[in-house]
Amino acid sequence: MTHFEMELEKLKNVIIKIGTLAVSQVGESVKALLFEPIEGKEVKKTEIKIDKLDVKIDEICQSIFALQQPVASDLRFIMASMQISNEIERIGDLAVSVIKRAKNIKEKHDLITKFEIGDLAKEVELITAKTNECLSTLDEKTIAEILTLNKNIKTKGDEIIDHIIDEMKSHSKVVVSGTNLVIALKHLERISDHCSNVAEYVYFMVNAKIIKHEKHDDLNINLDK
Amino acid sequence: MRDIKIQVNDLSLYYGEKKALKEISMQIPANKVTALIGPSGCGKSTFLRCINRMNDLIPSVKITGEMLVEGVDIYDKNVDVVNIRKKIGMVFQKSNPFPKSIYENVAYGPRINGLKDKTQLDEIVETSLRQAAIWDEFKDRLDDSALGLSGGQQQRLCIARTLAVSPDIILMDEPASALDPISTSKIEELVHQLKENYTIIIVTHNMQQAARTSDHTAFFYMGELIEMGKTNAIFTKPEKKQTEDYITGRFG
């Protein structure tokens, strides 16, 4: 393996590492939302680790750009890595925000059950895990699954939020918890969006085609090489 | 590639029994920079020398196929090789100024072509030096020996000397490989400016130089043209795996 290839391998490993930490943070946030408040120390530690890795990725990319002048697939990998790192760092931050919101939701169990939030939260956990998986496999089928999951999460999330708002309109005592829940759900939707962005960057890395800001309405066509 | 300057059809070149270029077909657009890249011995310099029939000087060389410059096959028996080389200038890896003054180096070609009028010669020398972006550096020392110049200045003088005979096409065989980064940058900038009036074909081992200076890039390997396309496409999304492996440094 050449020195350059070792640098690329190092970058890949750091990307997978930051992705794994994000999966863990999202897992904790779902736990906090669906069950009981969690101890915040570990989450805080992981958040700091993610931030450090995000900076490390920027430094590795900067160094490769300056010293190796990458082209073609290498160039796409470095460009995508910088973007992916940024997306994952945001996923980590949003997960922490969900945990904070979850603390302010009273009679949580009733609300979670009533609005069937469990399924949605599990889907967000799933999309995060699949996103981390596609970082190492670069598998196009997984990319397509992520993009579809994101659409479902968005639709389902918006429906639930509408129901919560209706509930708040008729029962003022749920306004505080309901508002926190709506914000937490919006954070989960954003996490899913960031996962979808990561999938788009992985697609770009593999196929040299930029698909961000596309609708992905017909995935079979859009994901064709 | 609407305006084609050079059309190459099934061009093969043999050094004795050895086939050094294998059925090369390509189109070189006018007023653009085309870079030829590939590992040592791939045939890119041999191909470049085919464009002004420099390989004619090697006795064992046999060439088949067509090299059409503005529609005329330069290997046709009726074509005058001297006229070809008037139209197609060449700059080499090592700068090779004549042991004469700066002025005489540039005036040499026009003089050989029969121009004697001093005013016209002065004009050509100034214009050529200006086009080569060295007039300001040299205008007060035109009588100095060219051999006293730095490598970078000598190379730009050689480009000015090439321009003085008003070619249409300029062939450059690794023109900056022996130069420092500042001189290299000046040559590259010059190439960029010259393409407005000339068709330039440049052989380089420096991938970044090819990427920076050229509009189109052709990748040669073992005498074959593997891929040719817009430089932006070649360096971001090459079609062929061999091209990708070469430009990313994973060849062989």
TrEMBL record, chain A:
PhoU domain boundaries? 16-101, 119-202
NCBIfam families, sorted: phoU_full (TIGR02135)
Q: Which organism is it from?
A: Flavobacterium alvei
Q: What keywords would UniProt list here?
A: Cytoplasm, Phosphate transport, Transport
Kindly give the SUPFAM superfamilies that the UniProt entry links to this protein.
PhoU-like
Per the entry, what this protein does is: Plays a role in the regulation of phosphate uptake.
Q: Which Gene Ontology cellular component annotation is one that this UniProt entry carries?
A: cytoplasm
Where, if anywhere, are coiled coils annotated? Answer: none
UniProt xrefs under Pfam families? PhoU (PF01895)
- Write out the annotated subcellular location: Cytoplasm
Query: What is stated as this protein's family in its record?
Result: Belongs to the PhoU family.
Quaternary structure, per UniProt, is: Homodimer.
Protein name as annotated:
Phosphate-specific transport system accessory protein PhoU
From TrEMBL, chain B:
Q: Which residues form the ABC transporter domain?
A: 6-247
Q: How does it sit in the membrane?
A: Peripheral membrane protein
Q: What is this protein called?
A: Phosphate ABC transporter ATP-binding protein
Which Gene3D superfamilies does the record cross-reference, listed alphabetically? P-loop containing nucleotide triphosphate hydrolases
UniProt KW Ribosomal protein keyword = no
Subcellular localization, as worded in the UniProt entry: Cell inner membrane
Top-rank taxon, per record? Bacteria
Gene Ontology CC annotation, any one: plasma membrane
Please indicate if the UniProt record lists Nucleotide-binding as a keyword. yes
Biological process according to GO: phosphate ion transmembrane transport
